[in-house]
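agent> Task received from the user: take the single chain below, predict its 3D structure, and emit structure tokens. No templates, no multimer pairing.
agent> Plan: (1) validate residues, (2) run structure prediction, (3) serialize to tokens, (4) report one or two observations.
agent> Step 1 OK, no nonstandard residues flagged.
tool_call: predict_structure(input=
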Amino acid sequence: MCGIVGLWGPQEDSWIETMNAIQAHRGPDDSGVFRDRNARVSLAMRRLAIIDLADGHQPMVTADGRHTIVFNGEIYNAPDLRAELEARGVQFATGHSDTEVVLQFYAREGADMLPRLNGMFAFAIYDRDRKTLFCARDRVGIKPFYYLDHEGRFAFASEIKSLLGLPFVSRTVNRQSLFHYMSLMYVPGPETMFQGIHRLPAGHCLTVDLESGSRDMKAWWRLPFARAAQPTSQTDLAAAVRDGLDAAVKRWMLSDVPVGCLLSGGLDSSAIVSLLARDGIPVKTYTLGFTGPGEETWSELPLARAVAEKWGTEHHEIVLDPQALLDDLPTMVWHMDEAYGGGLPSWSVFKFMSRNVKVALSGTGGDELFGNYHKYREMEGGAIRRLMAKPATLPSADRFRRDFFEAHYYGPDDWKRQEVFAADFGETRDTADLLHQHFSAGNTPTLRDRSVRTDFETQLPEEFLAMTDRFSMAHGIEARTPFLDHKFVEQAMGIPATERLNPRDYKRLLRLAVKELLPAELLNAPKKGFVIPLKPWLRTQLRATVETLLSPERLKKQGLFRPEFFRSTVAPHLNGRADNTSRVWGALMFQIWYSVFLESDPAVCPAWDVRAFGE
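)
tool_result: status=success, residues=615
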């Protein structure tokens, strides 16, 4: 697991070193730099050693000097691919490095080798002879890849802040991304919160011609929805799901260092732990709970403890005072790179786990595969259609806006135009239209599957996986998501929507698949989540900070939000006349991001207290 950076074009030697130093937290174990001065190409990396601890140094070059790779991720079928290449006469220089497997495979098959890779990855390969730079990202976007073009230069990095270390890069807010953010609480699509900096979409590759400067981007994978040839019973489907998940979990355990499991007390992470423990694999488990009033009504500590006791895991309970999250808030914002108004508790779990493990398995992806939060129900219409999940006419843009976008996200587009943003945001595209583009594309047969695909192409990679990557790598942890093993994803998507997604019974098929492995009380427990006291925070500990960072005077000077936003949205919440928690919190998190990245040196992790703004 690494952080990777690269630069093509006129440059100074110090630039690539600065980029690499900014992301040192992604790889405390090793670093390296490659330069081809004639081609004006520089590549560098920081390494967190997980596989082949002795021989995995990067950048890695083929014996003939033609191909050079910087690679971030893990390939879980690398041993099989290596054996295949060796049978074809390929000689390896390393003991069992998965990076060298990717390099050697590309040297022989080019981009055609991408579908053979099982794992999470983002990498770039420089071909000296063809004078190209080939960049690729894994199917669902587990690992990040950012890039920019600027006046005859191309640069890429695992984190945006490394790109900001280049002297020719300006820091300008992307107003379209900010417009989307205030509805979603994350930044969607190929653009980022910085004008001119882009993300390579999940399942895409990009080839840069280093002679002409041309770019060629292609999608090499998209979520499939194949159909089973014959009707299959729920019992048989559940058994197949259990076996498929078990195989995925075993594949994603490949490691030369200790592995731990996040155990939330929910169905997804409990299934992973149970499958490992059932097969006699020693498991370290980590669960987070909070102190505070009412905690006992939503805490998942008891459920997680029941799973740990059933299987005899080495169990760790992290009981956190929520104030500790406030202490770390500017640091979290710096590691995220973009404004983010979503969940924060994973930060504390990874922080604790880093004391004794370097790899953490997570249940991320289980919701999208087997529940999707029932986002599809309103669009399917009446009870009969919901039950049968028959192919249905695509909803109109207006109905999609009402029943999907406005039903599940934080702020309607009209509200943002009328009450939130300055008048010159009028040229921005509606967020509902962005999501509807994903929803309506292709020939997916049911509304239920279209809803799944929309989340797979937006919220999953751009919120949940982005947050997981940043918070884990901030603490030298490699987070793994076996539910997103592509073989298991494709197996699950091959199950008809009527069987995989039950509108009356959340995650019914997955629950049936693992019911014999889990404590009874967990199987029937309602879905819970970490509850952070945002509403009282904004009115008490953070009140002065809110009043400073969202004051009408600051908003007017900044020129992004309407000054009236304070009167219409912020003040009613602070005074207890309305509950605008999500909208005020989202605006506050943007302002903290703005302070960290536009009003401070983005190369330096902030050490100040966010509450100091109110002093």
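agent> Step 4: summary for the user.
The first helix runs from residue 13 to 22.
agent> Done.
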